[in-house]
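In response to reviewer comment 3 from the previous cycle, which asked for concrete evidence that the modeling workflow produces usable outputs, we include below a single protein chain processed end to end. The sequence was submitted unchanged, and the resulting structure tokens are shown without manual editing.
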Amino acid sequence: FRELVGVRPESPQARYWLARAYAANDDFANQKASLESALALAPEYPIAKLDMALLLAAEGQGEKAQALAGEVAAAFPDDPQVLNVRGDVASIRGRVDEALADYERAFAVAPTGDLARKLARARWKKGDTTTAVATLQAWVERHPKDLATRLQLAAAYLELKKFEESRKHYAEVVDQAPDAAVARNDLAWVLYRMGQFPAARTHAQRAYELDGKNPLVLDTLGMVALAQGEVSRAVSLLRTARDGQPGNPLLAYHLAGALTRAGEKAQARQLLKSVVESNAVFDERDEAKALLRRLE
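The workflow returned the following structure tokens.
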């Protein structure tokens, strides 16, 4: 695309596609420069304005981003792509009601899996978990091969502690994509939470073979090993997991639990104190506090 810009420097389209190429490589500084040059040549270029709005929102320039997206929406008030992007800008800014309204309008005109997931996330943020799950469930029933939406549905059920429903959807993803390490790992975690340790071990081991450096994969395999009485192996895996994400309080708590089982109570106590005193919010915080009380 740089060659195209050299041949046609007056073309805003060439500069826009160069910006997209930079974005694909996470080169956001050059993406912004290319968008600015495209808009200098064509100030009302809609798609370039939308991309610039998203970029500005990601940079924390929310008001400028919203104004830019609003200009395009004024010209194309019912365009689903415009509504989608304006919803994204509002979502980045934390304006959930505005984002939800735009996503609903866009979805009504041109429903997609991406919009179904965004709708569900917005509804979840508003505390409407029932409608969020129903949105995902309805889409997956109509589009059973949409694995991204099915994964979000499985994760929603997991967060709601509806483990059997979560297991079914993670298993379906693994059936369709056997080498999807994240899905394998998440399925293993659900099975672990259900107490189905041999099945959990099978999937956790396969996830480890696929992505053995991922701290979350190491954590899952370590917790399953601990549940199966392999304390030394668990400590090794969980220590490596925690070293990979030292700021993750859940991984620190899991390592502390394994250290406790291994008799290393002083180390466990030190880890737990750092977790509890940090006031970090995580799913098993109450359990971490209870273990610390037992060790003090």
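The chain has a mean pLDDT of 94. We consider this sufficient to address the reviewer's concern, and the full set will be provided in the supplementary archive.
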